[in-house]
Design brief:
Blueprint (H helix, E strand, L loop, with lengths): L1 E3 L1 H5 L5 E7 L1 H4 L7 E2 L3 E9 L4 E14 L6 E16 L10 E3 L3 E3 L1 H10 L36 H14 L1
Parallel strand pairs: 6-7
Antiparallel strand pairs: 1-8, 2-4, 3-5, 4-5, 5-6
Bound molecules: zinc ion (2 copies).
Length: 169
């Protein structure tokens, strides 16, 4: 995933597109982090400010996931945006937040790998309004309804309820 900065540098302020295809294996991403089912697409733009190279892009892929609510396997399309600033190692004025690179190529591998490892994949929902499983009989409520009374009473309300019940006698 190497971007040749030669052309970018000649046209200050002009966005140049980049497009790469990689894989979890090439990036050495552990399957425990997230199970990526096919290619990882990295695309975006790079531009030169006259001093710094601004890179902004998107990492997109499909992941095999298990829904937190209904426990069904599903494929989720995920997109992780990223923004980085790069600077040539020969630059006179050093920018604190910039990543230094040598020669004419910027290699995105490390950044993309880091973004994938640091991303928060804790929430998995097959759909925003997944109804989940019935806590009593285990029926997947997205597929069918069950006859269980799923009315859950807050313990504090339950206490209040029994207070009123007692009051009746
Ligand atoms: Zn679900
Ligand atoms: Zn049920």
């Amino acid at each position: 995933m190497r971007i040749n900065t030669g052309e970018t540098k000649m046209q200050v302020g002009v966005d140049q597109q980049f497009h790469f295809i990689t894989s979890a294996r090439q990036l050495d991403i552990d399957e425990k982090t997230i199970e990526i089912s096919d290619d990882i697409v990295v695309d975006g733009t790079i531009s030169y400010t006259g001093r710094l190279f601004q890179v902004s892009g998107n990492i997109s892929f499909h992941a095999e996931r298990v829904c937190d609510r209904c426990l069904v396997n599903y494929t989720e399309h995920m997109a992780i945006p990223f923004d980085e600033v790069y600077q040539e190692d020969t630059a006179e004025k050093k920018e604190e937040d910039a990543i230094e690179f040598e020669g004419t190529f910027i290699d995105l591998t490390m950044v993309v790998r880091e973004m994938l490892i640091m991303a928060d994949f804790s929430k998995a929902l097959c759909s925003e309004d997944c109804k989940g499983l019935c806590l009593k009989c285990g029926t997947n409520l997205n597929e069918q309804d069950c006859q269980c009374d799923r009315h859950i009473i807050d313990p504090r309300l339950a206490a209040l309820q029994s207070f009123f019940d007692n009051d009746k006698d």
